[in-house]
Amino acid sequence: MSMRFTAKARRGMVAMTIAVGLAVGVAGCGSGDTGDKKPDASASPSERGGSQASPQEGQSAQPLAEMRGPDGLTLKVMSAQRDSGGFVTINAQLKNDGSKDAVLSSQLTGNETEIMKNGQSFGGATLVDSKARKRYYVLRDTDGRPLTTIGIQSVRAGDTVPVFMQFPAPPAGTTEVSFQLPTFASATIKISG
Fold first, then answer.
1. Region Disordered: which residues (predicted)?
2. Which superfamily does 47-190 belong to?
């Protein structure tokens, strides 16, 4: 066997390994939900602002936390679900209780260049585990897009918009974390699952 053939075969194996690793990584970033559930018919796609919130299974009628923001905005955290893939998904409802349309602050997106280049999102959200002294940031896909609702520029007066954010899961023993979103008050939430 020539050295050229061996080097070519080695490059091919490395390329194949990287391709398989990326495919597994992208598959692992999905919500894992294979059900044929339809989105809530009460809100049009334009009201949802592009990305749709993931299904909010096992959600109680009472929010885990209610956080006040600017311009009459309220964020109600409805669930914080840990899944077997090592993720925590926060499902929430963003409501405009004000009398005028509320334009969302660009601060919600955060200040990381990779997230900012993907447009308006909730990429600035964090979970803080004060016992372990760790901060968890919104996950990103392989293209750097945040795994959160994107594209919501404003919320009309009286409207409610579903949103989600996905984070790496804290250790299994951690059940309470502080949820932080720029321009909103912080809140302590309980992780289920």
1. 31-67
2. Immunoglobulins (2.60.40.10)
